[in-house]
Structure formats: structure tokens, C-alpha cells
Amino acid sequence: MHVEPFENIAELSMAWPRSGIILIQDEAGAIDELIDNMARHGEWFPIIAFSENPDAQRIVKAILDGAIDYIAWPITAIELNGTLERAMARAECLGNAKLREVMARARIDRLTRREREVLGGVASGLSNRLIGEKLSISPRTVEIHRANMLNKLGANHTSDAIRIAIEAALLH
């Protein structure tokens, strides 16, 4: 097994591996920062978070933030190997979908609050007039926000924007 330690996420971002699993110490904001960096670079690697004596809430938050597994540190070699094998199997199933989700979230993050609201209205099948009524703005203003939203998302059509929102897990 090849292991390559990095001092921090910035150092990792300068030398993305071709494949593998990232073990990251669960410190405040570390998983979010790592996922943001992966999105900016168009990469996705399965993440296993770790810490000493983690509590259930901490583990749940890490998983919701994007880790695919969590381990209590220290860990035996046998336990670590089992965790890595499970993570690799899970990663094969999640890989492309997770990368699309990360990339879609990065695109959605470019939108203003109002553009996200317009995207939500569009995804709900509302007309510009109804979106405008719901948001207390004119239909023309909705058109402007809609055009800006499509441009920022790199979407050619409304259906592309809706697909991006679905991939970002904003819509179900």
C-alpha cells in the first residue's frame, strides 16, 4: 500500500494523486475545505475522516459533509485495511455520481441567493410570472435572474440547470 502524507489541504491540492483514498483528520471545516478544493480541481476522492474518541454527532456531521467513512484513531492495521477495502468498494459505486455532485455544487455556489430562488421556481415548473409573484419581483427581473443563472451554471437550457440542481442534491 502506498501512503503519501500531506501537511495540509493546500499541499494536497498542488499534487492531486491519480487515484486513492484520502484520510483526513476531522478538524473544524476540514472536510468542507477538502471538498471545495476537489470541486475546484474537478477531482473526487473518497474521504475517510478520523479523530481520537469521536462522538456520534461528530461522525454524523462528517458523513453528511461528504466523508464515506469514519474511524477512531488510533486504529490497528487490520481494522485500517478493512476500512480501506470497504471504502474502495463504496468509492467504485459512488465515484462518478459523487464527482458530478461535487462539480454541480461548485456551480451552484456561484449563484446569488435570488438566482437560487429562481432556479427553485424553474425546477418546480413555475412560469416567470408565478416565480415573480412568489418572490415579489417583476417577471422581467425573473428573466434577468434566470439568464444570469443559466450563464453562471454553464447551462444551455433550463433543463440543464435543473439537472445540475438535481446532481448538486438540491432537488430530489
UniProtKB/TrEMBL annotation:
UniProt xrefs under InterPro entries: CheY-like_superfamily, Sig_transdc_resp-reg_C-effctor, Sig_transdc_resp-reg_receiver, Tscrpt_reg_LuxR_C, WH-like_DNA-bd_sf
Domain Response regulatory, first and last residues per copy: 1-88
GO molecular function ontology, one term from the record: DNA binding
Source organism superkingdom: Bacteria
GO biological process: phosphorelay signal transduction system; regulation of DNA-templated transcription
PROSITE patterns, sorted: HTH_LUXR_1, HTH_LUXR_2, RESPONSE_REGULATORY
Official protein name in the record: LuxR family transcriptional regulator
Phylogenetic placement of the source organism: Bacteria, Pseudomonadati, Pseudomonadota, Alphaproteobacteria, Sphingomonadales
